[in-house]
Amino acid sequence: MTRRTQHGFTLIEILLVVAIFALIAGVAVPMFFNSFAGAKLRTSTRSVVMAHRYARNLAVLRQRPVAVLVSTASNTLEVVLLTGHESENLIELTAPLTDDTDTNAPAITTAFGSSGEVFTNAVEDKPTVELLKALDEGVNIDHFESQRPGSDNPDAPSVVVYYPSGLCDGFLLRLRDERGHVVEINADSLTGQVDVNYAED
């Protein structure tokens, strides 16, 4: 009667497999977290580009000027459909966009509301918030400059205006994530073309 040979793994072989898995995990886990953090910066960049294109298209389609309010305090971008009767410095947009004279009218959400809300109750005689986008957590607006002079109030949002002709105030916006990675978004005032440049400090 033949005896069957028993096969198994020695302790050394098991420890070797465990060591290999630990090595793979040690390499893969940091790569996963770096990729996830980089995805937040890319998503925020797409939000900025989307707000820019949406505002430009809205101004052309509605034949009314549109403003994008860039708030470094709350890391938000707010697209506002203007009436065309605002003053040149657009001080009106730094105040809450609410109608204090009509207590029954619903308040229009300002730049400090929740992200991604779209408002369709446009009123022709007052500015109306059309879109609000918040950047991902951990991504901040590090720097913003525009052809339009800024407000004397350091807490007021910066304003970019889009015109029915398709022109806009050119701007440069820089985003920075918690790892120090930086992306610069540059919008041309004539063509509306957006250049996105990623860099690391």
Q: Could you walk me through the main structural features you see in this protein, from its secondary elements to its overall organization?
A:
The chain is an alpha+beta fold and 201 residues long. It has a single domain (11-200), classed as 3-Layer(bab) Sandwich (minor pseudopilin epsh fold). It has one helix at 11-62; strands at 66-71, 76-81, 128-134, 139-146, 158-162, 171-177, 181-187, 194-200. Strands 3-2-1-5 form a four-stranded antiparallel β-sheet, with helices on one face. Strands 4-6-7-8 form a four-stranded antiparallel β-sheet, with helices on one face. A hairpin with a 4-residue loop joins β1 and β2 (76-81). The longest helix has 52 residues, at 11-62. The radius of gyration is 25 Å and the shape is elongated.
Map the helices and strands.
Layout: H1 11-62, E1 66-71, E2 76-81, E3 128-134, E4 139-146, E5 158-162, E6 171-177, E7 181-187, E8 194-200
Antiparallel strand pairs: 1-2, 1-5, 2-3, 4-6, 6-7, 7-8
Short description:
By secondary structure, the chain is an alpha+beta fold.
**What is Rg?**
25 Å
Low-confidence stretches: 96-123
Report the top-level CATH class. Alpha Beta
The overall strand count is: 8
Overall, the morphology is elongated
Largest sheet, order of strands side by side? 3-2-1-5
Mean pLDDT: 76
Q: Output the structural class.
A: alpha+beta
Please, how many helices?
A: 1
**What is the terminal-to-terminal distance?**
75 Å
Beta-strand percentage range: 25-35%
Q: Spell out the helices and strands N to C.
A: HEEEEEEEE
